[in-house]
Write a structure and sequence with these properties.
Structural class: mainly alpha
CATH architecture of the largest domain: Orthogonal Bundle
CATH topology of the largest domain: Fic-like fold
Distance between the termini: 17 Å
CATH superfamily of the largest domain: Fido-like domain
Largest sheet: 3 strands, antiparallel
Strand order of the largest sheet: 1-3-2
Radius of gyration: 20 Å
Shape: globular
Strand content: under 5%
Order of helices and strands: HHHHHHHHHHEHHEEHH
Number of strands: 3
Number of domains: 2
Number of helices: 14
Helix content: 55-70%
Length: about 325
């Protein structure tokens, strides 16, 4: 995996630091909602992006959604706040209790008996043939993981964060909440290195889970590493564009979502083209209204410009999808 591009973007971002406090707050607020929404969505939570924002920012409940889904949102947001406090540490200073505290926050009020505790029963990943470690081995495996996490290494920061995530979910030390905890740990390590947190998008769920399983079954880890690197790359782009004043994604909220006709008008494309690009997986739908209308975040305007540029360079749709 080539990480030089990420290193170069990180140097570019460092050139803008310190960022204005108002911009940092704006970005943190946006990432708090987006990370909570996407991480929970990967695990099956049905709250939309807008509903997640309502729950964690306004403390309101959403009709038709379960108590568990509300708790998953508020708990994840609280855990994100906690890892922001941990960022002042170095990886070598992380204690086993820090990870258990993160997990306890994830399951607080959902499964208090298992929150913050290693599993004592065998578990399986639904729909997967991966065989997870015997529960009797978990404490020793976690001791080994802790030693690796706090030890010396020469990995690129993004590779290190991704590897920590991979090792933790492969041990699967908890009855529930392993994926959320692993993604939070990954982002804690990224932020400790000065990187923005990486978002595994809902649309990437199947590719992400498939790449993890492929590696866990003894195959190549390259696909998984690519997904993590691309997630880190997208977050760096968000920060760089915000720092340069080109596109303040931190300002995007649910009142700024675009209808398909508005996106078409903003990009000079036709509605059928926008529909086609969406169906092909090139554009991401931010929300779907109760009436079935698709809404797009403002960053899809720039995505359309990227698609047009790549099409002009004679890339195929599949190539464009990989490059975005």
């Amino acid at each position: 995996m080539e990480y030089e591009k990420l290193t170069q973007k990180m140097r570019e971002l460092d050139g803008f630091r310190p960022l204005p406090p108002a911009l940092v707050r704006n970005l943190n607020d946006w990432f708090r909602v987006e990370l909570t929404y996407t991480s929970n969505a990967i695990e099956g939570n049905t709250l939309t992006r807008r509903e997640t924002a309502v729950v964690i920012e306004q403390g309101l409940t959403v009709g038709g959604k379960t108590l568990r889904e509300h708790l998953e949102a508020t708990n994840h947001a609280q855990a994100l706040d906690f890892i922001h406090d941990l960022v002042k540490k170095k990886p070598s200073q992380l204690a086993a209790k820090d990870l258990l505290d993160i997990h306890e926050m994830i399951l607080k009020g959902i499964d208090d008996d298992n929150a913050g505790h290693y599993r004592s029963i065998p578990v399986r990943i639904s729909g997967s043939t991966v065989v997870l470690p015997n529960p009797r081995k978990v404490p020793d495996l976690m001791d080994d993981f802790q030693a690796w996490l706090t030890g010396k290494h020469d990995l690129h920061p993004v590779a290190f964060a991704g590897e920590a995530h991979y090792r933790l979910v492969s041990i699967h030390p908890f009855v529930d909440g392993n994926g959320r905890t692993a993604r939070l740990l990954m982002n804690l390590l990224l932020m400790m290195a000065g990187y923005p947190p990486a978002i595994i998008r809902k649309r990437d769920r199947l590719a992400y889970i498939g790449a993890l399983e492929q590696a866990q079954l003894g195959g190549s880890k390259a696909d998984y590493e690519k997904i993590i690197a691309k997630a880190a790359d997208r977050s760096l782009d968000i920060y760089l564009k915000a720092a340069q004043g080109e596109f303040a994604i931190g300002d995007v909220d649910t009142n700024q979502l675009l209808k398909i006709g508005e996106l078409a008008k903003a990009t000079g494309e036709t509605v059928p083209t926008i529909r086609f690009w969406t169906k092909a997986g090139l554009l991401e739908v931010a929300e779907v209204t109760e009436s079935g209308y698709q809404l797009y975040a403002a960053d899809m305007v720039q995505r359309c410009e990227q698609i047009k540029r790549l099409k002009s360079e004679r890339h195929t749709l599949e190539e464009i999808k990989q490059l975005l």
